[in-house]
Amino acid sequence: MTNIAKPIIKQIKDNREALDFFENVLLPAEDEKTQEIIANFPTVYIHNWQDSGDFEVYVGESNDIFKRTRQHYDAAVDKSKWQRKLMEKDARLFIIGHEHFNKSLTMDIENRLMHYMMSAERVKHVHNLRDNPQTSYYPVEELDEIFGRIWRGLRKENKELFPTESAIKDSAIYKASPLHKLTKEQKDARELILQKVSKALENGETRQLIFIDGEAGTGKTVLNSSTFYELYCQAEEEEKTLKCYLLVNHDEQITVYEQIAEKLGLTAKYGKVVSKPTTFINNHSEDDPVDVVFVDEAHLLLTQGKQSYHGENQLKDIIARARVTVVMFDENQILTTEQFWEAQILEHYRNQAKAAENHIVLDKQLRMQADPVTMDWIDSFTKKGQLKEIPHTVDGYQIKVFDDPEMLDLEIQKKAKEKDSALSRVLATYDWEYSQKRKPDDRLRAYWEVVIGKWHKPWNRELGAELSRKEKRKISGLAWAEQPQTINEVGSTFTIQGFDLNYAGVILGPSVKYRNGKIIFAPSESHNNKAIRNRTMSDGTKQKFGEMLIQHEVRVLMTRGVNGMYIYACDPELRAALLKAVK
Protein backbone atom coordinates (compact mmCIF):
# COMPACT_ATOMS: atom_id res chain seq x y z
CA MET A 1 0.00 0.00 0.00
CA THR A 2 3.00 2.32 0.25
CA ASN A 3 2.71 3.34 -3.44
CA ILE A 4 -0.75 4.84 -3.02
CA ALA A 5 -0.66 8.56 -3.86
CA LYS A 6 -1.42 11.26 -1.30
CA PRO A 7 -4.96 12.65 -1.42
CA ILE A 8 -5.55 16.21 -2.59
CA ILE A 9 -7.22 18.33 0.11
CA LYS A 10 -8.19 21.93 -0.52
CA GLN A 11 -9.87 24.17 2.06
CA ILE A 12 -11.65 27.36 0.95
CA LYS A 13 -14.25 29.75 2.30
CA ASP A 14 -17.71 28.35 1.66
CA ASN A 15 -19.35 30.97 -0.58
CA ARG A 16 -19.82 31.70 -4.30
CA GLU A 17 -16.99 34.22 -4.55
CA ALA A 18 -14.44 31.87 -2.95
CA LEU A 19 -15.60 28.97 -5.14
CA ASP A 20 -15.34 31.09 -8.32
CA PHE A 21 -11.85 32.25 -7.32
CA PHE A 22 -10.76 28.67 -6.61
CA GLU A 23 -12.14 27.37 -9.94
CA ASN A 24 -10.88 30.20 -12.13
CA VAL A 25 -7.66 31.36 -10.45
CA LEU A 26 -6.25 28.93 -7.85
CA LEU A 27 -6.97 25.62 -9.58
CA PRO A 28 -5.50 26.64 -12.99
CA ALA A 29 -2.27 27.52 -11.15
CA GLU A 30 -1.96 23.92 -9.89
CA ASP A 31 -0.20 21.16 -11.82
CA GLU A 32 -2.16 19.40 -14.58
CA LYS A 33 -2.76 16.24 -12.54
CA THR A 34 -4.34 18.17 -9.65
CA GLN A 35 -6.51 20.13 -12.08
CA GLU A 36 -7.67 16.91 -13.74
CA ILE A 37 -8.48 15.15 -10.44
CA ILE A 38 -10.48 18.07 -8.97
CA ALA A 39 -12.27 19.09 -12.17
CA ASN A 40 -12.98 15.74 -13.82
CA PHE A 41 -12.79 12.99 -11.19
CA PRO A 42 -15.41 12.22 -8.49
CA THR A 43 -14.63 14.16 -5.32
CA VAL A 44 -15.73 14.18 -1.69
CA TYR A 45 -16.54 17.42 0.11
CA ILE A 46 -17.31 18.65 3.63
CA HIS A 47 -19.28 21.82 4.36
CA ASN A 48 -18.67 22.86 7.97
CA TRP A 49 -19.48 25.80 10.19
CA GLN A 50 -19.58 26.61 13.88
CA ASP A 51 -22.69 27.33 15.89
CA SER A 52 -22.36 28.23 19.59
CA GLY A 53 -18.81 26.91 19.56
CA ASP A 54 -19.59 23.44 18.17
CA PHE A 55 -19.53 22.31 14.55
CA GLU A 56 -22.24 21.36 12.11
CA VAL A 57 -21.29 19.50 8.94
CA TYR A 58 -22.61 18.19 5.66
CA VAL A 59 -20.59 15.50 3.88
CA GLY A 60 -21.15 14.73 0.20
CA GLU A 61 -19.63 13.27 -2.95
CA SER A 62 -20.03 14.46 -6.53
CA ASN A 63 -18.84 13.94 -10.10
CA ASP A 64 -18.84 17.74 -10.54
CA ILE A 65 -17.84 19.56 -7.36
CA PHE A 66 -18.40 23.04 -8.78
CA LYS A 67 -21.89 22.35 -10.15
CA ARG A 68 -22.91 20.48 -6.97
CA THR A 69 -21.65 23.19 -4.61
CA ARG A 70 -23.52 25.89 -6.55
CA GLN A 71 -26.68 23.79 -6.26
CA HIS A 72 -26.22 23.91 -2.47
CA TYR A 73 -25.85 27.70 -2.63
CA ASP A 74 -29.01 27.95 -4.76
CA ALA A 75 -30.91 25.88 -2.19
CA ALA A 76 -29.97 28.38 0.53
CA VAL A 77 -32.97 30.56 -0.38
CA ASP A 78 -35.13 28.05 1.50
CA LYS A 79 -34.75 29.07 5.14
CA SER A 80 -35.75 25.61 6.37
CA LYS A 81 -32.73 23.92 4.77
CA TRP A 82 -29.27 23.47 6.22
CA GLN A 83 -27.76 25.30 3.20
CA ARG A 84 -29.14 28.53 4.62
CA LYS A 85 -26.52 28.33 7.37
CA LEU A 86 -23.76 28.50 4.74
CA MET A 87 -24.90 32.06 4.08
CA GLU A 88 -25.30 32.99 7.73
CA LYS A 89 -22.19 31.40 9.25
CA ASP A 90 -18.49 31.71 8.50
CA ALA A 91 -18.54 28.34 6.77
CA ARG A 92 -15.58 26.46 5.28
CA LEU A 93 -15.48 23.90 2.48
CA PHE A 94 -13.06 20.98 2.15
CA ILE A 95 -12.69 19.51 -1.35
CA ILE A 96 -11.02 16.08 -1.40
CA GLY A 97 -9.70 14.31 -4.48
CA HIS A 98 -7.59 11.26 -5.27
CA GLU A 99 -6.29 9.71 -8.47
CA HIS A 100 -8.00 6.39 -7.62
CA PHE A 101 -11.41 7.88 -6.84
CA ASN A 102 -14.37 6.32 -8.64
CA LYS A 103 -18.07 6.49 -7.75
CA SER A 104 -18.04 3.50 -5.37
CA LEU A 105 -14.86 4.54 -3.56
CA THR A 106 -16.04 8.13 -3.07
CA MET A 107 -19.36 6.87 -1.68
CA ASP A 108 -17.55 4.68 0.84
CA ILE A 109 -15.24 7.58 1.79
CA GLU A 110 -18.33 9.78 2.20
CA ASN A 111 -20.01 7.14 4.40
CA ARG A 112 -16.99 6.77 6.65
CA LEU A 113 -16.54 10.54 6.95
CA MET A 114 -20.19 10.84 8.04
CA HIS A 115 -19.62 8.05 10.56
CA TYR A 116 -16.48 9.69 11.96
CA MET A 117 -17.96 13.19 11.99
CA MET A 118 -21.01 12.01 13.92
CA SER A 119 -18.68 10.43 16.48
CA ALA A 120 -16.50 13.55 16.88
CA GLU A 121 -17.05 15.26 20.23
CA ARG A 122 -17.16 18.80 18.76
CA VAL A 123 -19.69 17.96 16.02
CA LYS A 124 -23.25 18.54 17.21
CA HIS A 125 -25.10 17.87 13.95
CA VAL A 126 -24.45 15.91 10.74
CA HIS A 127 -26.99 17.09 8.16
CA ASN A 128 -26.85 14.15 5.74
CA LEU A 129 -29.97 12.02 5.55
CA ARG A 130 -28.45 8.55 5.18
CA ASP A 131 -25.44 6.51 4.19
CA ASN A 132 -25.06 4.26 1.12
CA PRO A 133 -22.34 1.68 1.79
CA GLN A 134 -20.80 -0.11 -1.19
CA THR A 135 -19.87 -3.77 -1.40
CA SER A 136 -17.25 -5.09 -3.81
CA TYR A 137 -15.45 -2.82 -6.29
CA TYR A 138 -11.98 -1.85 -7.46
CA PRO A 139 -10.05 -0.58 -5.50
CA VAL A 140 -11.96 -1.50 -2.29
CA GLU A 141 -8.73 -2.96 -0.85
CA GLU A 142 -7.27 0.58 -0.86
CA LEU A 143 -10.18 2.12 1.08
CA ASP A 144 -8.60 1.96 4.57
CA GLU A 145 -5.23 3.34 3.45
CA ILE A 146 -6.71 6.17 1.37
CA PHE A 147 -9.21 7.09 4.09
CA GLY A 148 -6.48 7.11 6.76
CA ARG A 149 -4.41 9.52 4.66
CA ILE A 150 -7.44 11.74 4.05
CA TRP A 151 -8.29 11.88 7.77
CA ARG A 152 -4.72 12.72 8.75
CA GLY A 153 -4.66 15.43 6.08
CA LEU A 154 -7.91 16.91 7.37
CA ARG A 155 -6.58 16.78 10.92
CA LYS A 156 -3.60 18.93 9.86
CA GLU A 157 -6.13 21.53 8.70
CA ASN A 158 -8.35 21.48 11.82
CA LYS A 159 -7.59 19.39 14.92
CA GLU A 160 -10.78 20.47 16.70
CA LEU A 161 -13.06 19.25 13.94
CA PHE A 162 -11.00 16.16 13.12
CA PRO A 163 -9.76 14.35 16.28
CA THR A 164 -7.46 11.33 16.11
CA GLU A 165 -8.84 8.14 14.57
CA SER A 166 -8.23 6.27 17.83
CA ALA A 167 -10.30 8.85 19.76
CA ILE A 168 -13.13 8.41 17.25
CA LYS A 169 -13.05 4.61 17.35
CA ASP A 170 -12.94 4.52 21.16
CA SER A 171 -16.06 6.65 21.50
CA ALA A 172 -19.31 5.00 22.58
CA ILE A 173 -21.19 6.91 19.87
CA TYR A 174 -18.98 5.42 17.15
CA LYS A 175 -19.61 1.90 18.43
CA ALA A 176 -23.41 2.31 18.55
CA SER A 177 -23.65 4.39 15.36
CA PRO A 178 -26.27 3.48 12.73
CA LEU A 179 -23.69 4.32 10.04
CA HIS A 180 -21.54 1.21 10.48
CA LYS A 181 -21.15 -0.96 7.39
CA LEU A 182 -23.23 -4.01 8.29
CA THR A 183 -22.16 -7.63 7.96
CA LYS A 184 -24.21 -9.91 5.67
CA GLU A 185 -25.88 -11.39 8.76
CA GLN A 186 -26.85 -7.92 9.99
CA LYS A 187 -28.01 -6.81 6.52
CA ASP A 188 -30.26 -9.85 6.17
CA ALA A 189 -31.70 -9.23 9.64
CA ARG A 190 -32.29 -5.54 8.90
CA GLU A 191 -34.01 -6.32 5.59
CA LEU A 192 -36.32 -8.81 7.30
CA ILE A 193 -37.21 -6.28 10.01
CA LEU A 194 -37.91 -3.54 7.43
CA GLN A 195 -40.13 -5.88 5.40
CA LYS A 196 -42.08 -7.02 8.46
CA VAL A 197 -42.55 -3.45 9.69
CA SER A 198 -43.71 -2.27 6.27
CA LYS A 199 -46.24 -5.12 5.99
CA ALA A 200 -47.57 -4.58 9.52
CA LEU A 201 -48.04 -0.84 9.00
CA GLU A 202 -49.69 -1.31 5.59
CA ASN A 203 -52.14 -3.91 6.94
CA GLY A 204 -52.89 -2.00 10.14
CA GLU A 205 -51.60 -4.85 12.31
CA THR A 206 -50.83 -4.34 16.01
CA ARG A 207 -48.88 -6.13 18.74
CA GLN A 208 -46.43 -7.69 16.29
CA LEU A 209 -43.19 -8.95 17.87
CA ILE A 210 -39.80 -9.39 16.22
CA PHE A 211 -37.43 -11.26 18.56
CA ILE A 212 -33.65 -11.17 17.99
CA ASP A 213 -31.42 -13.47 20.04
CA GLY A 214 -27.74 -12.60 20.21
CA GLU A 215 -24.97 -12.83 22.78
CA ALA A 216 -22.64 -10.01 23.80
CA GLY A 217 -20.64 -8.69 20.85
CA THR A 218 -22.80 -10.11 18.05
CA GLY A 219 -23.81 -6.69 16.71
CA LYS A 220 -27.28 -6.27 18.23
CA THR A 221 -26.81 -2.59 19.09
CA VAL A 222 -25.57 -1.61 15.62
CA LEU A 223 -28.39 -3.58 13.98
CA ASN A 224 -30.85 -1.84 16.30
CA SER A 225 -29.65 1.73 15.65
CA SER A 226 -29.16 1.13 11.91
CA THR A 227 -32.69 -0.24 11.37
CA PHE A 228 -34.22 2.46 13.58
CA TYR A 229 -32.49 5.21 11.59
CA GLU A 230 -33.28 3.59 8.22
CA LEU A 231 -37.00 3.63 9.03
CA TYR A 232 -36.85 7.39 9.66
CA CYS A 233 -34.88 7.92 6.41
CA GLN A 234 -37.46 5.95 4.43
CA ALA A 235 -40.33 7.86 6.03
CA GLU A 236 -38.71 11.20 5.08
CA GLU A 237 -38.13 10.11 1.49
CA GLU A 238 -41.72 8.90 1.16
CA GLU A 239 -43.02 11.96 3.07
CA LYS A 240 -44.83 9.74 5.55
CA THR A 241 -45.34 10.34 9.25
CA LEU A 242 -43.71 7.80 11.55
CA LYS A 243 -43.92 7.27 15.28
CA CYS A 244 -40.85 5.23 16.10
CA TYR A 245 -39.07 4.93 19.47
CA LEU A 246 -35.85 3.40 20.75
CA LEU A 247 -35.87 2.16 24.35
CA VAL A 248 -33.10 0.94 26.62
CA ASN A 249 -33.13 0.36 30.38
CA HIS A 250 -29.51 1.37 30.97
CA ASP A 251 -28.42 4.85 32.08
CA GLU A 252 -25.09 4.90 30.22
CA GLN A 253 -26.49 3.50 26.96
CA ILE A 254 -29.49 5.81 26.85
CA THR A 255 -27.16 8.83 26.94
CA VAL A 256 -25.32 7.46 23.89
CA TYR A 257 -28.54 6.92 21.93
CA GLU A 258 -29.80 10.40 22.85
CA GLN A 259 -26.59 11.94 21.51
CA ILE A 260 -26.87 9.97 18.25
CA ALA A 261 -30.50 11.09 17.79
CA GLU A 262 -29.47 14.72 18.38
CA LYS A 263 -26.48 14.59 16.02
CA LEU A 264 -28.58 13.09 13.24
CA GLY A 265 -31.32 15.71 13.70
CA LEU A 266 -33.99 13.23 14.81
CA THR A 267 -34.63 14.97 18.14
CA ALA A 268 -35.09 18.38 16.49
CA LYS A 269 -37.55 16.97 13.91
CA TYR A 270 -39.48 14.37 15.90
CA GLY A 271 -38.97 15.19 19.57
CA LYS A 272 -37.85 12.67 22.19
CA VAL A 273 -37.48 9.42 20.22
CA VAL A 274 -35.16 7.76 22.76
CA SER A 275 -36.31 6.94 26.27
CA LYS A 276 -36.38 4.44 29.11
CA PRO A 277 -39.09 1.76 28.99
CA THR A 278 -40.95 3.05 32.05
CA THR A 279 -41.10 6.58 30.60
CA PHE A 280 -42.46 5.24 27.31
CA ILE A 281 -45.06 3.07 29.03
CA ASN A 282 -46.26 5.95 31.24
CA ASN A 283 -46.52 8.36 28.28
CA HIS A 284 -48.36 6.11 25.79
CA SER A 285 -51.61 4.19 25.85
CA GLU A 286 -52.87 0.95 24.31
CA ASP A 287 -55.67 2.95 22.61
CA ASP A 288 -53.22 4.92 20.47
CA PRO A 289 -50.27 2.63 19.66
CA VAL A 290 -47.12 4.02 18.08
CA ASP A 291 -45.79 2.49 14.85
CA VAL A 292 -42.53 0.83 15.92
CA VAL A 293 -40.59 0.37 19.14
CA PHE A 294 -37.01 -0.94 19.22
CA VAL A 295 -35.82 -2.32 22.56
CA ASP A 296 -32.07 -2.66 22.93
CA GLU A 297 -30.83 -4.90 25.76
CA ALA A 298 -34.36 -6.28 26.22
CA HIS A 299 -32.98 -8.66 28.86
CA LEU A 300 -32.79 -5.57 31.09
CA LEU A 301 -36.56 -5.06 30.94
CA LEU A 302 -38.32 -5.51 34.26
CA THR A 303 -40.57 -8.50 34.89
CA GLN A 304 -41.90 -7.18 38.19
CA GLY A 305 -42.79 -3.76 39.57
CA LYS A 306 -40.35 -1.39 41.25
CA GLN A 307 -40.36 2.31 42.14
CA SER A 308 -41.79 4.24 39.15
CA TYR A 309 -42.88 1.11 37.27
CA HIS A 310 -46.07 -0.39 38.71
CA GLY A 311 -46.77 -3.05 36.10
CA GLU A 312 -45.77 -6.71 36.03
CA ASN A 313 -43.97 -7.10 32.70
CA GLN A 314 -42.45 -4.22 30.74
CA LEU A 315 -42.26 -6.15 27.47
CA LYS A 316 -45.98 -6.99 27.64
CA ASP A 317 -46.80 -3.32 28.28
CA ILE A 318 -44.56 -2.12 25.41
CA ILE A 319 -46.03 -4.61 22.91
CA ALA A 320 -49.52 -3.37 23.83
CA ARG A 321 -48.50 0.19 22.92
CA ALA A 322 -46.92 -0.48 19.51
CA ARG A 323 -47.85 -1.92 16.14
CA VAL A 324 -44.44 -3.58 15.89
CA THR A 325 -41.97 -4.23 18.73
CA VAL A 326 -38.39 -5.26 17.89
CA VAL A 327 -36.41 -6.69 20.82
CA MET A 328 -32.71 -7.56 21.11
CA PHE A 329 -32.25 -10.22 23.78
CA ASP A 330 -29.37 -11.99 25.54
CA GLU A 331 -30.44 -14.02 28.56
CA ASN A 332 -26.78 -14.46 29.56
CA GLN A 333 -26.73 -10.75 30.48
CA ILE A 334 -29.62 -10.75 32.96
CA LEU A 335 -28.07 -9.40 36.16
CA THR A 336 -30.81 -8.63 38.70
CA THR A 337 -33.80 -10.46 40.15
CA GLU A 338 -36.31 -7.93 38.79
CA GLN A 339 -34.92 -8.60 35.29
CA PHE A 340 -35.16 -12.39 35.70
CA TRP A 341 -37.29 -14.10 33.04
CA GLU A 342 -39.08 -17.29 33.99
CA ALA A 343 -38.43 -19.87 31.24
CA GLN A 344 -42.07 -20.28 30.24
CA ILE A 345 -42.61 -16.52 29.96
CA LEU A 346 -39.49 -16.02 27.83
CA GLU A 347 -40.38 -18.96 25.59
CA HIS A 348 -43.90 -17.58 25.16
CA TYR A 349 -42.51 -14.44 23.52
CA ARG A 350 -39.83 -16.28 21.55
CA ASN A 351 -42.42 -18.77 20.23
CA GLN A 352 -44.80 -15.94 19.38
CA ALA A 353 -42.10 -14.48 17.14
CA LYS A 354 -41.20 -17.90 15.68
CA ALA A 355 -44.84 -18.57 14.75
CA ALA A 356 -44.87 -15.35 12.69
CA GLU A 357 -41.41 -16.12 11.23
CA ASN A 358 -40.12 -13.10 13.15
CA HIS A 359 -37.29 -14.80 15.07
CA ILE A 360 -33.65 -13.95 14.22
CA VAL A 361 -30.46 -15.35 15.74
CA LEU A 362 -27.16 -13.43 15.58
CA ASP A 363 -24.24 -15.73 16.34
CA LYS A 364 -21.11 -14.19 14.81
CA GLN A 365 -18.78 -12.57 17.38
CA LEU A 366 -17.98 -9.03 16.16
CA ARG A 367 -16.65 -7.30 19.29
CA MET A 368 -13.83 -9.49 20.52
CA GLN A 369 -10.84 -10.04 18.26
CA ALA A 370 -10.59 -13.58 19.58
CA ASP A 371 -10.21 -16.90 17.78
CA PRO A 372 -12.65 -19.80 18.38
CA VAL A 373 -10.30 -21.49 20.89
CA THR A 374 -10.18 -18.32 23.04
CA MET A 375 -13.95 -17.87 22.83
CA ASP A 376 -14.37 -21.50 23.87
CA TRP A 377 -12.17 -20.84 26.94
CA ILE A 378 -14.34 -17.86 27.97
CA ASP A 379 -17.57 -19.79 27.27
CA SER A 380 -16.34 -22.78 29.31
CA PHE A 381 -15.42 -20.54 32.27
CA THR A 382 -18.56 -18.37 32.28
CA LYS A 383 -21.21 -20.88 31.17
CA LYS A 384 -20.03 -24.32 32.28
CA GLY A 385 -17.82 -23.52 35.28
CA GLN A 386 -14.91 -25.29 33.59
CA LEU A 387 -11.33 -24.02 33.72
CA LYS A 388 -9.47 -25.14 30.61
CA GLU A 389 -5.88 -24.51 29.65
CA ILE A 390 -5.55 -20.86 28.65
CA PRO A 391 -4.80 -20.53 24.92
CA HIS A 392 -1.63 -18.65 24.05
CA THR A 393 -1.63 -16.27 21.07
CA VAL A 394 1.28 -14.14 19.92
CA ASP A 395 -0.53 -11.45 17.93
CA GLY A 396 -4.21 -12.01 18.69
CA TYR A 397 -6.45 -11.67 21.73
CA GLN A 398 -4.46 -11.79 25.00
CA ILE A 399 -5.48 -13.50 28.22
CA LYS A 400 -3.03 -12.81 31.06
CA VAL A 401 -3.28 -13.96 34.67
CA PHE A 402 -1.80 -11.97 37.58
CA ASP A 403 -1.07 -13.06 41.13
CA ASP A 404 -1.14 -9.45 42.40
CA PRO A 405 -3.99 -6.91 41.81
CA GLU A 406 -1.50 -4.04 41.79
CA MET A 407 0.42 -5.58 38.89
CA LEU A 408 -2.83 -6.02 36.93
CA ASP A 409 -3.72 -2.40 37.67
CA LEU A 410 -0.30 -1.13 36.54
CA GLU A 411 -0.55 -3.13 33.31
CA ILE A 412 -3.98 -1.63 32.53
CA GLN A 413 -2.65 1.87 33.36
CA LYS A 414 0.20 1.23 30.93
CA LYS A 415 -2.19 0.10 28.19
CA ALA A 416 -4.40 3.17 28.74
CA LYS A 417 -1.42 5.44 27.99
CA GLU A 418 -0.96 3.88 24.56
CA LYS A 419 -2.75 5.50 21.62
CA ASP A 420 -4.42 2.34 20.35
CA SER A 421 -5.57 1.02 23.73
CA ALA A 422 -6.56 4.17 25.66
CA LEU A 423 -9.94 2.61 26.47
CA SER A 424 -8.54 0.10 28.95
CA ARG A 425 -10.01 -0.11 32.47
CA VAL A 426 -10.09 -2.24 35.63
CA LEU A 427 -13.40 -4.01 36.38
CA ALA A 428 -14.55 -6.17 39.28
CA THR A 429 -17.38 -8.39 40.43
CA TYR A 430 -19.69 -6.59 42.87
CA ASP A 431 -18.10 -8.09 45.97
CA TRP A 432 -17.26 -4.90 47.87
CA GLU A 433 -19.70 -2.54 49.53
CA TYR A 434 -20.96 0.50 47.62
CA SER A 435 -23.75 3.02 48.16
CA GLN A 436 -24.72 6.12 46.22
CA LYS A 437 -26.73 7.40 49.17
CA ARG A 438 -24.12 7.50 51.92
CA LYS A 439 -20.40 7.69 52.57
CA PRO A 440 -18.33 4.81 53.96
CA ASP A 441 -18.56 4.31 57.70
CA ASP A 442 -14.78 3.95 57.88
CA ARG A 443 -13.50 7.52 58.39
CA LEU A 444 -10.10 6.54 56.99
CA ARG A 445 -11.68 6.02 53.56
CA ALA A 446 -13.05 8.91 51.51
CA TYR A 447 -14.59 6.57 48.92
CA TRP A 448 -16.28 3.25 48.54
CA GLU A 449 -13.41 1.09 47.38
CA VAL A 450 -12.36 -2.30 46.09
CA VAL A 451 -9.84 -3.38 48.73
CA ILE A 452 -7.51 -6.37 48.35
CA GLY A 453 -4.76 -6.49 50.96
CA LYS A 454 -2.79 -3.25 50.72
CA TRP A 455 -4.09 -2.45 47.22
CA HIS A 456 -7.28 -0.40 46.97
CA LYS A 457 -9.07 1.66 44.34
CA PRO A 458 -12.38 3.62 44.29
CA TRP A 459 -15.51 2.11 42.80
CA ASN A 460 -16.97 3.63 39.64
CA ARG A 461 -18.41 7.16 39.81
CA GLU A 462 -16.69 7.92 43.14
CA LEU A 463 -14.10 10.34 41.70
CA GLY A 464 -16.56 12.21 39.49
CA ALA A 465 -18.02 14.03 42.49
CA GLU A 466 -14.68 15.78 43.09
CA LEU A 467 -14.35 17.23 39.58
CA SER A 468 -14.72 20.95 39.04
CA ARG A 469 -17.78 22.31 37.25
CA LYS A 470 -15.69 22.81 34.11
CA GLU A 471 -14.36 19.23 34.26
CA LYS A 472 -17.88 17.88 34.77
CA ARG A 473 -19.11 19.79 31.71
CA LYS A 474 -16.26 18.34 29.68
CA ILE A 475 -17.20 14.74 30.47
CA SER A 476 -20.96 15.33 30.27
CA GLY A 477 -22.49 12.71 27.99
CA LEU A 478 -19.41 10.47 27.99
CA ALA A 479 -19.75 6.83 28.97
CA TRP A 480 -17.99 5.80 32.19
CA ALA A 481 -15.00 4.25 30.41
CA GLU A 482 -14.50 7.33 28.21
CA GLN A 483 -14.08 9.68 31.18
CA PRO A 484 -10.38 10.26 31.92
CA GLN A 485 -10.62 10.03 35.73
CA THR A 486 -12.06 6.51 35.53
CA ILE A 487 -8.62 5.03 34.87
CA ASN A 488 -8.28 5.51 38.65
CA GLU A 489 -11.56 3.71 39.42
CA VAL A 490 -12.89 0.14 39.25
CA GLY A 491 -15.87 -0.44 36.97
CA SER A 492 -18.82 -2.76 37.60
CA THR A 493 -21.46 -4.31 35.37
CA PHE A 494 -23.68 -1.31 36.11
CA THR A 495 -21.30 1.03 34.26
CA ILE A 496 -19.69 -1.25 31.67
CA GLN A 497 -22.53 -3.45 30.39
CA GLY A 498 -23.14 -2.77 26.70
CA PHE A 499 -19.77 -1.07 26.14
CA ASP A 500 -16.39 -2.08 24.73
CA LEU A 501 -12.90 -1.74 26.16
CA ASN A 502 -9.59 -2.27 24.41
CA TYR A 503 -8.29 -4.28 27.38
CA ALA A 504 -10.34 -5.31 30.40
CA GLY A 505 -8.60 -5.91 33.73
CA VAL A 506 -11.08 -8.24 35.46
CA ILE A 507 -10.87 -8.75 39.23
CA LEU A 508 -12.81 -11.84 40.28
CA GLY A 509 -13.83 -11.15 43.85
CA PRO A 510 -14.55 -13.63 46.67
CA SER A 511 -17.88 -14.65 45.07
CA VAL A 512 -15.98 -16.57 42.34
CA LYS A 513 -14.22 -19.65 43.71
CA TYR A 514 -12.58 -22.87 42.55
CA ARG A 515 -13.44 -26.08 44.40
CA ASN A 516 -12.94 -29.72 43.40
CA GLY A 517 -11.99 -28.86 39.85
CA LYS A 518 -15.03 -26.64 39.27
CA ILE A 519 -15.68 -22.88 39.25
CA ILE A 520 -18.47 -22.01 41.67
CA PHE A 521 -20.34 -18.79 42.35
CA ALA A 522 -21.05 -17.86 45.97
CA PRO A 523 -23.90 -15.36 46.54
CA SER A 524 -22.95 -15.11 50.24
CA GLU A 525 -19.77 -13.24 49.20
CA SER A 526 -21.54 -10.77 46.90
CA HIS A 527 -22.63 -7.22 47.77
CA ASN A 528 -24.99 -7.05 44.79
CA ASN A 529 -28.30 -7.14 46.62
CA LYS A 530 -30.18 -6.94 43.30
CA ALA A 531 -28.74 -10.32 42.36
CA ILE A 532 -28.88 -12.22 45.64
CA ARG A 533 -32.26 -11.24 47.12
CA ASN A 534 -35.39 -13.38 46.81
CA ARG A 535 -37.46 -13.27 43.65
CA THR A 536 -41.23 -13.71 43.86
CA MET A 537 -42.29 -16.08 41.09
CA SER A 538 -45.53 -15.98 39.10
CA ASP A 539 -46.95 -18.77 41.33
CA GLY A 540 -46.24 -16.72 44.47
CA THR A 541 -43.24 -18.74 45.66
CA LYS A 542 -39.95 -17.06 46.50
CA GLN A 543 -36.74 -18.32 44.94
CA LYS A 544 -33.09 -17.30 44.79
CA PHE A 545 -31.07 -17.02 41.58
CA GLY A 546 -27.86 -15.54 42.99
CA GLU A 547 -25.51 -18.20 41.57
CA MET A 548 -26.86 -17.81 38.05
CA LEU A 549 -26.88 -13.99 38.18
CA ILE A 550 -23.29 -13.81 39.48
CA GLN A 551 -22.33 -16.21 36.68
CA HIS A 552 -23.92 -13.75 34.21
CA GLU A 553 -22.09 -10.89 35.91
CA VAL A 554 -18.74 -12.63 35.36
CA ARG A 555 -19.60 -13.24 31.69
CA VAL A 556 -20.44 -9.55 31.15
CA LEU A 557 -17.07 -8.53 32.62
CA MET A 558 -15.13 -11.18 30.69
CA THR A 559 -16.61 -10.18 27.32
CA ARG A 560 -15.81 -6.44 27.48
CA GLY A 561 -12.24 -6.49 26.13
CA VAL A 562 -11.87 -6.24 22.35
CA ASN A 563 -8.16 -7.05 22.32
CA GLY A 564 -7.53 -8.78 25.60
CA MET A 565 -8.41 -9.60 29.20
CA TYR A 566 -6.22 -9.53 32.31
CA ILE A 567 -7.43 -11.55 35.31
CA TYR A 568 -6.79 -11.51 39.06
CA ALA A 569 -8.74 -13.84 41.35
CA CYS A 570 -9.15 -13.15 45.06
CA ASP A 571 -9.88 -16.81 45.87
CA PRO A 572 -6.46 -18.46 46.43
CA GLU A 573 -7.53 -21.78 44.89
CA LEU A 574 -8.92 -20.11 41.78
CA ARG A 575 -5.83 -17.89 41.49
CA ALA A 576 -3.54 -20.95 41.68
CA ALA A 577 -5.67 -22.84 39.14
CA LEU A 578 -5.62 -19.89 36.73
CA LEU A 579 -1.85 -19.54 37.00
CA LYS A 580 -1.51 -23.27 36.39
CA ALA A 581 -3.88 -23.02 33.38
CA VAL A 582 -1.50 -20.52 31.77
CA LYS A 583 1.23 -23.13 31.72
CATH class of the largest domain: Alpha Beta
CA-based shape: globular
Distance between the termini: 39 Å
Named CATH topology of the largest domain: Rossmann fold
What is the total tally of β strands?
22
**CATH architectural designation of the largest domain:** 3-Layer(aba) Sandwich
Question: Main beta sheet: strand number and arrangement?
Answer: 6 strands, parallel
Number of alpha- plus pi-helical segments? 22
Q: Helix proportion of residues, in percent?
A: 25-40%
Lateral strand order in the biggest sheet: 8-7-9-10-6-11
The share of residues in extended strands comes to 15-25%
Using only C-alpha atoms, the radius of gyration works out to 26 Å
Task: List low-confidence stretches.
Answer: none
Give the number of domains: 3
Q: By helix and strand content, what is the structural category?
A: alpha/beta
Query: Taking all residues together, what is the mean pLDDT?
Result: 93
Q: What this model shows, in words?
A:
By secondary structure, the protein is an alpha/beta fold. The chain folds into 3 domains: 8-169, no CATH class; 184-362, Rossmann fold, CATH 3.40.50.300; 372-582, Rossmann fold (3-Layer(aba) Sandwich), CATH 3.40.50. Helix content is 38%, strand content 19%. It has 22 helices and 22 strands. The strands form 6 sheets. A 6-stranded parallel beta sheet has the order 8-7-9-10-6-11. It has a 5-stranded mixed beta sheet with strand order 1-4-2-3-5, sandwiched between helices. Strands 12-22-17-13-16 form a 5-stranded parallel beta sheet, sandwiched between helices. Helix 9 (184-202) packs across helix 10 and helix 16 (372-384) packs antiparallel against helix 21 (546-558). The protein is globular, with a radius of gyration of 26 Å. The protein starts with 7 loop residues before the first strand and ends with a helix. This is DUF2075 domain-containing protein. Pfam families: SLFN-g3_helicase. It comes from Hominiventricola filiformis.
